[in-house]
Structure formats: structure tokens, C-alpha cells
Amino acid sequence: MAENAYLCIDIYGAIIRMKQYTLTAPERLSSTIGLPASKSISNRALIIYALSGGKSLPQNLSDCDDTEVIVKALQHMPKEIDIKAAGTAMRFMTAYLCVMKGTHIITGTERMKHRPIGVLVDALRTLGANIDYEGETGFPPLRITGRQLKGGLLEIPGNISSQYISALLMIGPMLKDGLTLRLTGEIISRPYIDLTLWTMREFGAEADWTAVDTITVSHKPYQNRDYFIESDWSGASYWYEILALIDDRESEVRLTGLMDGSKQGDSVTRYLFSLLGVKTIFETKGEGIPQTITIKKNGRCVPRLEYDFVNSPDLAQTFVVVCAAKNIPFHFTGLSTLKIKETDRIEALKKEMRKLGYVIHDFNDSELKWDGERCEPSYEEGIDTYEDHRMALAFAPYALKIGQLKINHPQVVSKSYPRYWDDLVKAGFQIEEGQKE
């Protein structure tokens, strides 16, 4: 069945109708929003906590689906681990299982079984891991038998998903000879690699760049410690989008738990939105302290936006929607990983933006461009979300542009921001629940 379908058949042959939310936008915003904890930091801290032999889970963990499947797997360690649609969990847990005693099968949703993992499996096998494919070669599910790995020098392409690289780095301290990871060619998503190294060092690891293309991790066990997770800058980006799109100049939103100087790659949100008419005010001037920020409109926008999202690809959908809505032509590059996310985000964006009346063009499987070309809108049936949380999260604020918008299969936000719809209602949006016919 197509991923954007909203009628499905259960095991008894009955038709199940999927949810649809109708969002009605407010005219003014003044609200304080408790953002979810960072999914990226939570997932890294969980794997490192487990490798350290920790007894107490990190504090303020994300409550999203991706994090919960890791918590469940680490707490119960069943023979078959189902990580559902969590790509991060698949990659991180695959590496983790390679260095832990026991044999496990790791699997996921039907979509997950078509998301490539061969690069990571090949790299782990080079280090001595015992991994077998249970289905199609290059894709989950995997059968893994953990054991002591020797480690040493490993070369992999730098233009693969940073989650592969992070998965390898996090098990580095457990390898007999440590790990020297040499990245060949272009290195993408470097902030996510740096976030992994920073989190590793927070737990006592010796891990850092030793050359422009090389990372060295020493064989030094992690130290168990109490750890607090900061809020998620990716989640904050949707509230910046809302402020950018609302007409009322007095509107403001306060977002809790964010850090100035955060290692999260998506913290670039504050700088990019300063170009689109939104300013950021921190509660204090101290870096590295979770605090409340206030975002307000400043009214000044660039006439055109060109940006390379190679280091923050998860923000691409947000900026495609907001720039088009504000009639700001754009050319975005560095989007090669979008085609292997929860869905092919490049194709999904082109199709759903056309519903809103915008003709987006793609180039080289890594670029999106809009020069103002329009078409007749046709959004009456709602925005399809393709089992992709960021499609729902990024398109919902467009209700501010047209007053009312329908989102199909809205529950997909549970993957990263489960309370999103509740927070929108708190901020003044009206949401009517219905069914997709």
C-alpha cells in the first residue's frame, strides 16, 4: 500500500480510516512552550549510558518514539528487537549489539526494511563484527552476535549519514585497540559528528578530531555519571516558523530549556530565522545553561535565501515551507540525505508544496530551488505526511498563511515531538479531529 494512503485493511479485512486534523490559526500568539528534550542527545546519551554500565537513565530524556524504542531495547534486551520506524535507533543499536554479549535480531517497520544499512554493516564487519542479513542484503533485519572487537584503523566515506559515523564512534572506547576513523571525500553533517564526540567526552571518553579527516577514539571505558538532556533545537524551529508566518507584529513565544552555544547542529535555526524576520532573546548571557528564550518578529527579511543544509538537513522542510509562504525565492543545497529519510523528502516536498500552489524544482538529488513559480492550489484533501514526522511538523504552521489547513495522519509527530498538537492548542490554534475520506 502506498505510504500516503489513509485507508488500510486490517487482518480481518476491515477498512480502517486514518485521522485528519483541521488546523485553524490564531491571529496573535503569546505563549510559553515546554519544548521536548533533544532526541539527538537523548539517543546518544542512552547508548553511552548503557556502554558505561550505568544504573540510572539520563534525566529529561526525550519522550518521542525514537528514544522510547531504545529505552525499551536496553531495559529488556529481547532476542528480537523491533525499533519500528526509528532510523537512529537502528543504526546506533546495530553497533551497540556488536560489542555486547548475546545474539539478537534487530528489525523494524516495512519502510525500515527498505532503508539501507550496508555501509554500516560492512564497516562493523571490517572491525570483526558478526552480522548476518535476515532478508535482503544491505537492509534490515539483521542477526548480530556480540563479541570483543579489535578496532584500529577504519576508512569510510564522509558523505554517508552521520548516524553511521556516530554509531561507530560511540563503540570506539569498547574496542581493544580503540578506533581511528578516517573519512574520505566530502564530510557531511559534521555538527552531528561533533555532537557525538561532545557527548562521548561528557562521559569521560577520549575522542576528537586529530586531522581534518580523521577522528581518534582511545580504548578508555566510559564513566557512569548523572546526565541532564537539554531541549531540542529542531523542535524549536517550528515555533520560529510560526513567528515568521504570523502577521501580528506583537506576537511572541517563549521556549524553555534551550542552550546558547548548543552543540546541536539545528541550533543554526536562530541565525537562519534572523534572516526571515525573527529575533532571539536569551534569558541570561551564560552559555551551556538550559534557559528560556523569547522569539519575536523584527520585520526584516532577505529578498532571497541560498543555503547549504549539508550540516542540518532536518531543517530543510521547515525552510522550504516558510520561504515559499513568505514569497522568498530560495536555492537549497546539501540535501542528498533527504531521499533516504523516513520517506523521500525531496519528492514529498515537491508534491505537497504543489498542493499549496508552489512549483519546486530539484536538481542532482541534492538541491531544491524555487524562483517564484506558482500553480493552482489544491489543498482541500489535506497535506499528506508519508509516515514522516517532519512533514507534519513543518507544514502545520502554513495554516497561518491561509487560515485553515488539514494535516493527514497527524499522529506521525510522535516520532520526535509527541506533544506538538497539544502545544499548538496551548498557543491558540484550534484543532478539529476528523477522518480522511
Helices and strands, with pairings:
Elements: E1 7-9, E2 15-17, E3 19-24, E4 30-33, H1 39-51, H2 65-76, E5 80-82, H3 87-98, E6 102-107, H4 118-126, E7 130-133, E8 142-146, E9 152-157, H5 162-170, E10 179-184, H6 190-202, E11 207-211, E12 214-217, H7 233-245, E13 252-258, H8 269-274, E14 276-282, E15 291-301, E16 305-308, H9 316-325, E17 330-333, H10 345-355, E18 361-363, E19 367-370, H11 389-395, H12 399-402, E20 404-408, H13 420-427, E21 430-435
Parallel strand pairs: 4-13, 5-6, 9-10, 16-17
Antiparallel strand pairs: 1-2, 3-20, 3-21, 6-8, 7-8, 10-12, 11-12, 13-15, 14-15, 17-19, 18-19
Helix pairs in contact: 1-2, 1-3, 1-6, 2-3, 3-5, 4-5, 5-6, 7-9, 9-11
Structural notes for this entry:
With 437 residues, this protein is α+β, with helices and mostly antiparallel strands. It has 2 domains: 18-37 and 230-436, UDP-n-acetylglucosamine1-carboxyvinyl-transferase, Chain, CATH 3.65.10.10; 41-217, UDP-n-acetylglucosamine1-carboxyvinyl-transferase, Chain. 29% of the residues lie in helices and 24% in strands. It contains 13 helices and 21 strands. The chain has helices spanning 39-51, 65-76, 87-98, 118-126, 162-170, 190-202, 233-245, 269-274, 316-325, 345-355, 389-395, 399-402, 420-427, and strands at residues 7-9, 15-17, 19-24, 30-33, 80-82, 102-107, 130-133, 142-146, 152-157, 179-184, 207-211, 214-217, 252-258, 276-282, 291-301, 305-308, 330-333, 361-363, 367-370, 404-408, 430-435. A 4-stranded mixed β-sheet has the order 4-13-15-14. Strands 5-6-8-7 form a 4-stranded mixed β-sheet, covered by helices on one side. The protein has a 4-stranded mixed β-sheet with strand order 9-10-12-11. Helix 3 (87-98) links the parallel strand 5 and strand 6 (102-107). It is globular and about 60 Å long. The two termini are 16 Å apart. Residues 1-16 have low confidence and may be disordered.
